[in-house]
Amino acid sequence: MSLSKQTDYGTGHNFEEFIEELLNQNGIHANVVSYKQGDNGIDIIATFNRQIILIQCKNTGKPIDANIIKNFQASVYRFGEPILSIIVYNSEKLKNYNCPLTKSARLWWKAVCPEIQIASEKMIVTCIQKILQSEESELNFESLKLDSESEELSELEQEQLYSVEKSHSVKPTCYKSDDDFKFQIENLLSGNRILVNSFNSRKDKIDIIATFNRQIILIHLSNSSDVNTFKGLQTSVYRFGEGILSIIVQNSENFNNPSIKNERSYRKIKIITEKKIVNYIKNSLTKKNFKKTSHKKYGLSANAIERRDNDVWSCSKQISDKVSWICPECTYINNPLMPDCEMCSTARTAKNNFIEEINTINQLENQDYISTARPAKNRFIEEINTMNQLVNQDYSFLEPMVAKISKNKNLCLEQWDCPDCTLINESDVVMCIACGYIKDNSIK
Fold this sequence. Notes:
Layout: H1 12-24, E1 29-32, E2 44-48, E3 51-58, H2 66-77, E4 84-89, H3 103-112, E5 117-120, H4 124-131, H5 148-161, H6 178-190, E6 195-198, E7 208-212, E8 215-222, H7 233-238, E9 245-250, H8 258-261, E10 270-273, H9 277-284, H10 302-309, E11 325-326, E12 333-334, H11 361-392, H12 399-413, E13 415-417, E14 424-426
Parallel strand pairs: 3-4, 4-5, 8-9, 9-10
Antiparallel strand pairs: 1-2, 2-3, 6-7, 7-8, 11-12, 13-14
Keywords: Coiled coil, Metal-binding, Zinc, Zinc-finger
Domain RanBP2-type: 408-441
Coiled coil: 132-159
């Protein structure tokens, strides 16, 4: 959506409606709400990528003072941390000021709550989309970082706030009024570390918006058996976006009413009694059910780099039997514990201290083949020598056989060096058995 040029919004309520429409048309589900438990500035609750966004709208002609930020900060902390919170101001009305905040407000904001975003109506959409970049992203405040002492203080305040955890055992009771029923549910949730905020929306039938594990919960309270009170609830839930946990808390005295159990139009909204609401929320919103991006950096550790840089050849047991070293002269792959090449007796040099892990299965198999074939060749040469002695004794009937054996002897004794891997191959081999080089006719 192209940003509207309209900036004279008149009253603050009109400005809220404009921001709500602006966000909804840009894929951010926004709902104007009326904060019942002390209006400290939360005008809009929005959701984007299943993340909560708390927005305060300021349509004022003067810079925002420190008290507004303090009250908004207190309201935001009741939802738990971290929650994306934004104060959006009318840029047209503050165009004559260098900063939308007063000096005292700016000092407080930088020192205590820099995670609260300050944005104009022209930048609020971009601000939300940049911070909540993906469904699994953590809140990314980029350069805005909390002071470590302030962050520790916030955690300490939260621990003090919930240090006395209430143990609730809900007993069957007949609540005097709807307000009494709502008060009991609020106490029940708050006592079990589920942050509660009561709302009386102009549009929605949402009675309580709660948060647990940074997940939003929409709750509608029903203290009667009249299913007509459910009408319009489905639409209200969908306005917050998909994937939001929504619950109808029904008075257990009326839960056995068949008209409630058979209400098919609200199957996507869980209907539950006040006795089971706490366990249901905690089981549904446990951390294992939601993926979070872990920012891991993969690379060589300091110990690995030190071992690589200071690696000196030794007969240590840490060297694996499958890791070998290559002779620089004949390229034969040697056992890691051998100080000299088994093929050409070349000493292992310093440059071979770096152990190479390569796929040497084929070459090792070929080398094993050559090693096992050599004894057979030696026996064959001995047989040839024996036959030559017989020839010298003038056994003429053996001359054809001796001639054939001599021919084979010459073939076996003639060898050629591979120009690529320098492996010595037999004369009758036209392709190097180590690297696959095809013998050139010029090689003898």
